[in-house]
Specification:
By secondary structure, the chain is mainly alpha-helical. 54% of the residues lie in helices and 11% in strands. The longest helix has 16 residues. Keywords: Membrane, Transmembrane, Transmembrane helix.
Length: 116
């Protein structure tokens, strides 16, 4: 996997590049009064009551970081690259028609647990 970068490492590098910490990011999200739960749900390709309950059961910090990661590294980043490296997990296993699949969200959660 020489030309790959895992999403957690890309996320940490992105924060480092902007000179902020995870706590700085979370404070900024909190002060912006974004409803991270509804914003994350809006970005899912399909949404059942069970999925909504699952997401609503996650801690706020986890949902806020997931929202940032899916938006900055997957949805708007159509190349699937970060600084010339291919993101892992790859975009096509996370994104379906500019929306995040629930399975993709679960995959990202496993990488996010390394950060929290």
């Amino acid at each position: 996997m020489d030309n790959w970068i895992t999403v957690d490492k890309a996320f940490v590098d992105l924060l480092h590049e902007y000179g902020i910490t995870i706590d700085d990011l979370l404070i900024a999200i909190e002060y912006s009064n974004i409803d991270v739960y509804s914003e994350l749900i809006k970005r899912l390709d399909s949404c059942t009551r069970d999925i909504v309950e699952f997401i609503n059961g996650l801690p706020w910090k986890t949902v806020a970081l997931l929202l940032f990661i899916v938006q900055s590294l997957y949805i708007v980043n159509t190349t699937g690259l970060y600084k010339g490296y291919r993101l892992y997990p790859p975009r096509d296993s996370i994104v379906v028609s500019f929306k995040i699949s629930f399975n993709g969200l679960l995959i990202l959660l496993t990488y996010l647990r390394n950060l929290i």
